[in-house]
Amino acid sequence: MNYALVSAAAFAGGIIAVGTAYLNCDVQIVGSGTGFADHQWLESVGPEAAERVMGTSNFNPSFGVRIPEAAEHYAIYLREHNNIPMPLETSNGWCGMATLVEALAVAGSSDREAIADALYNMDLGSDSLPMWYVLFEGVKFNTSGDNRDRYNQNERVGITAGEILKQVLGGEWQLVWPLEYKTADIVFE
Predict the structure, then answer these.
(1) What is the pLDDT of residues 77-118, one digit of tens each?
(2) What is the pTM of this model?
């Protein structure tokens, strides 16, 4: 078995998958980048050419959510968007905006310094509103170290850093890592 590690945009990733299938190459494609994250990629490539292709992407709530209320809201999202899975931009946007909502609630005003203080002291767990559609462990901004002021990066992204590994199996994207969320076992042939 040969392996092809590919970092590509959607068009190039599709050409590689279709080309290797057309030439009947025995290649296991492991992709990274937007070419292997979008549901439209699978539709454009076709299930046969895409079979066994693996790709990294941000967690997508179509693979499940940790909070029952989030599942209810995601069902509404799917209904309103013709059953098209939530793209990573939307799930990450939810995380960012919900983090600001939490900070505004704590700040109790729109005062910049009050919001900054709320963010600086924030320590949200995996069951909090911002975590509904992402796989981070929580939100806690790094407030120590060299060259760090009060506006810093989240230090609770977790072991996955919000990323997953998925694989096309039976014509559908399946989540194969992290193992606690997997919808199928990874296939190497």
Answers:
(1) 999 999 888 877 788 888 889 999 999 999 999 999 999 889
(2) 0.69
Q: How far is CA 94 from CA 124, 126, 184, in A?
A: 15, 14, 27
Closest CA to 105 of 131, 89, 129, 136: 129
Tokens of 88: 């990573």
- Other beta carbons less than 10 A from residue 76's beta carbon: 9
Question: Which domains does the chain carry?
Answer: 2-59+162-181 (3.40.50.2300), 61-159 (no CATH)
Q: Give the CA dihedral 70, 137, 181, 90, nearest 10 degrees.
A: 50
Alpha helices in 108-186 (DSSP H): 112-120
Name every residue whose Cβ is closer than 8 Å to that of residue 78 and which is 6 or more positions away in sequence.
62, 84, 85
